[in-house]
Amino acid sequence: MKSYKFKIGNFNCLAIKDGTHIYHEPVGILFPDAPKELLALALKRHDIDPDNWTKWRSDYTCLMVDTGTHRVLMDTGAGTFLPEAGRLVKNLRTLGIEPDEIDLVLISHAHPDHVGAVAFPNARIVMRREEWDFWNGEPDLPRLPSEFKEMLLYLIKPLLASLADRIELIDGNTQIIPGIKTIAATGHTPGHMAVSVESEGQELLYTGDAILHPIHMEHPNWNAIVDVIPKEAEATRRHLLARAASGNSFLFCFHFSFPGLGRIREKGNTWQWEPIN
């Protein structure tokens, strides 16, 4: 399945698959600081063999919201730099949606799997100022191996340079258009943002990379190696999860199994993922 249609109030929404990517040695990427015995139990609850989990195939799923007035895209996928991803534009076209029909693009953060396709010529492109400034400066990425850091910078800086004359930088929490509001969600990167989509009393929270795996809902204190500011990443996860639980909001998670849409329920002091059927 390449797309999934659903509604939030009066808004027509589309989960659109950009593709997949295989991450090798996923424990070291997703849960590098997790206690070994607790992690083994958590993995088994998700039918994962902790001794033989050498590959994690992650779906990449973007979200488009048609408000009736605007067509809003959240993140643009991986573009051309990964062999099994970068299908967003093609999959939009199969639905009869051309890139020039998108009039607003919200970038959760500057990692290349989220900002890889700059193919929307008529769109406002919005990013948090902190994110732009971080990657265009001398970013400190102390948790990453040097080769991983160099690869990220090699890819990100040209992508952002290509947006320099189009980017609209915002601060804090900002209502972009009626029903669409950005939420400062610092931690995964310094300027990471989530998005609230609200219509007729229903809310969806687009979480970007604030939550990479359902186990992060059960153990929000387990940070990924790509979380630049771990304490803030944990605080952001807890904030978004508590908000979704209290408001019975939908969550949309870019790296979860397609379509990345579901709700959560409280489980003690943590949460559990309930994907849509």
Structure description:
The chain is 26% helix and 30% strand. The protein is of the alpha/beta class and 277 residues long.
In whole angstroms, the N-to-C terminal distance is 14 Å
Query: Number of DSSP strands?
Result: 14
Q: Structural class of the helix and strand makeup? A: alpha/beta
Indicate the radius of gyration in whole angstroms. 18 Å
What count of structural domains? 1
Poorly predicted ranges: none
Please state the oligomeric state of the protein chains shown.
single chain
Biggest beta sheet summary = 7 strands, mixed
Q: What CATH architecture label applies?
A: 4-Layer Sandwich
Map the helices and strands.
Layout: E1 3-8, E2 11-24, H1 26-30, H2 36-45, E3 55-66, E4 71-74, H3 88-94, E5 104-106, H4 112-115, E6 124-128, H5 129-135, H6 146-161, E7 167-170, E8 175-177, E9 180-184, E10 193-199, E11 202-206, H7 215-218, H8 230-247, E12 250-252, E13 261-267, E14 270-275
Quick gist of this model?
With 277 residues, the chain is of the alpha/beta class. It contains 8 helices and 14 strands.
Structure keywords:
single chain, about 280 residues, alpha/beta, Metallo-beta-lactamase, Chain A, seven-stranded mixed sheet, 8 helices, globular
